């Protein structure tokens, strides 16, 4: 999965002020909701507020009655250390549930890697499907060492390595966007992509594309292809985590609506 993550987003700054009423004692403004986010990482976050994590952060700030403030930082090596760790912000809107570098809330959605291919192509049913072996497949490459994402490892374990093309996360466009554009140009036949990115960019493709989550591979040693996503706060910030948990419980339907707008494929049943 790209942000493991690369499923994290952005930094934010605290803005506090005071006001006077009838020249009386100053009244403090509500404390800002300080959110960390990547300034150019659609569909998750963007500086113009067009990502779905931006929308969820806006919903959260409105619900809490607090001003929303960002300080942007690209989601690269050291992101958590340079944001939450440096006290620059208090919340990362999207991290894997149980992420070891933060304390995490209850998950608010669960998604998976999906196979993206033309709608006219014969559907692939399993990882052992002969049709899969005949496809030229794009996968996302993660981290500075360009390690394969989980589907890349599964494909390799099934002997499919010569027909796989890697798309590094770093680039002028998101890796998923580049892979889907390659499908449209006929350079590859399909791509195994993290669901939220696949759904967002496939919807914007010029031709109909099909998204399908393949059943979990039978190999017990295979990496997971499904992940629950939560919000991350500093370790030990129990009070804020409880506030966010309460928000997620109360506003889950509104969050689901935002995810649907962005065509985020979701797995039924969010892990607790």
Query: N-to-C SSE series?
Result: EEEEEHEHEEEHEEHEHEHEEH
> What is the share of helical residues?
25-40%
Number of helices: 7
The CATH architecture of the largest domain is 3-Layer(aba) Sandwich
Q: What is the alpha-carbon Rg in Å?
A: 20 Å
**Count of all domains:** 2
The CATH homologous superfamily of the largest domain is called Periplasmic binding protein-like II
Termini gap: 20 Å
CATH topology type of the largest domain: D-Maltodextrin-Binding Protein, domain 2
User: How is the biggest beta sheet arranged?
Assistant: 11 strands, mixed
Structural class: alpha/beta
Write down the overall mean pLDDT.
86
Give the overall form. elongated
Strand content: 15-25%
pLDDT below 50 for ≥5 consecutive residues: which ranges?
1-26
Strand tally, please?
15
CATH class of the largest domain: Alpha Beta
SSE inventory with pairings:
Elements: E1 18-19, E2 27-28, E3 33-37, E4 40-41, E5 45-46, H1 52-64, E6 68-72, H2 79-82, E7 91-96, E8 103-104, E9 109-118, H3 130-133, E10 137-142, E11 147-148, H4 150-157, E12 164-168, H5 175-185, E13 190-194, H6 195-203, E14 209-212, E15 226-233, H7 238-261
Helix pairs in contact: 1-7
Note down, in words, how this protein is organized:
- By secondary structure, this protein is α/β, with parallel strands linked by helices.
- The protein folds into two domains: 18-109 and 227-261, Periplasmic binding protein-like II (D-Maltodextrin-Binding Protein, domain 2); 111-212, D-Maltodextrin-Binding Protein, domain 2.
- It has seven helices and 15 strands.
- The strands form three sheets. Strands 3, 6, 7, 8, 9, 10, 11, 12, 13, 14 and 15 form an eleven-stranded mixed β-sheet that branches. Strands 1-2 form a two-stranded antiparallel sheet. A two-stranded antiparallel sheet has the order 4-5.
- The radius of gyration is 20 Å and the shape is elongated.
- It starts with 17 loop residues before the first strand and ends in an 11-residue tail after the last helix.
- The relative contact order is 0.19.
- The model is unreliable at 1-26 (pLDDT under 50).
């Amino acid at each position: 999965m790209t942000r493991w993550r690369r499923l994290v987003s952005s930094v934010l700054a605290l803005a506090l002020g005071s006001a006077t009423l009838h020249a009386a004692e100053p009244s403090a403004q509500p404390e800002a909701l300080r959110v960390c986010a990547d300034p150019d990482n659609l569909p998750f976050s963007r500086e113009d507020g067009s990502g779905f994590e931006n929308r969820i952060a806006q919903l959260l700030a409105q619900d809490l009655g607090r001003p929303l403030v960002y300080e942007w930082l690209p989601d690269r090596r050291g992101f958590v250390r340079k944001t939450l760790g440096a006290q620059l912000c208090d919340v990362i809107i999207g991290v894997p549930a149980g992420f070891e570098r933060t304390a995490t809330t209850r998950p608010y959605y669960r998604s998976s890697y999906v196979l993206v291919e033309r709608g006219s192509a014969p559907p692939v049913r399993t990882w052992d499907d002969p049709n899969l072996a005949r496809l030229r497949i794009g996968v996302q490459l993660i981290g500075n060492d360009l390690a394969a994402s989980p589907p890349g490892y599964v494909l390799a374990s099934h002997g499919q390595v010569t027909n796989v093309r890697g798309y590094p996360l770093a680039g002028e466009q998101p890796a998923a966007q580049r892979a889907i554009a390659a499908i449209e140009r006929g350079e590859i036949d399909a791509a195994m992509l993290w669901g939220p990115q696949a759904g967002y960019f496939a919807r914007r493709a010029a031709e109909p594309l099909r998204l399908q989550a393949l059943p979990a591979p039978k190999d017990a040693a295979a990496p997971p292809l499904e992940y629950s996503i939560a919000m991350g706060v500093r370790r030990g910030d129990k009070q804020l985590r409880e506030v966010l948990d309460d928000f997620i419980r109360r506003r889950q339907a509104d969050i689901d609506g935002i995810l649907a707008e962005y065509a985020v494929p979701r797995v039924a049943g969010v892990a607790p």
